[in-house]
Amino acid sequence: MNYHQYYQTDVINGPGTRATLFVSGCEHQCRGCYNQSTWNPCSGHLFDEQMQQRIIDDLNDNRIKRRGLSLSGGDPLFPANVAAILALVKQVIEQCPAKDIWLWTGYRLEELSAEQQAVVDLVNVVVDGKFEQELADPSLVFRGSSNQTIHYLR
End-to-end CA distance of the chain, in Å? Predict the structure, then answer.
């Protein structure tokens, strides 16, 4: 898996102060997407064990009280990303149990594969649905268009 950007301190992508990872790879290619540069799964930087450990270290750094991890992109549930995202989510749950995990995906929950569902089963919140430019609404919190749904799972 590749990633485009990592923000160790972010206050926009989810509630509270968070660590946010924008992964590469998205097959939805929504018209009006503000992250088109993340569509190509080969773009960005290699997500390796060192990067994964950096996220864990940042989440455990008590100098900044981070509420959790946000996973966006691209699409964290893009099939080529699922194994690495699952490993990251499991490590966050194990080593940072007080942190929540939010995940944004263009897939709807009812259309997930078993592998994608395994990730969703572990996260706290999923924002699902493709961005639809004709339904875009800048007043929405944590989503770009009104067809997207915030699912509070855990």
Answer: 26
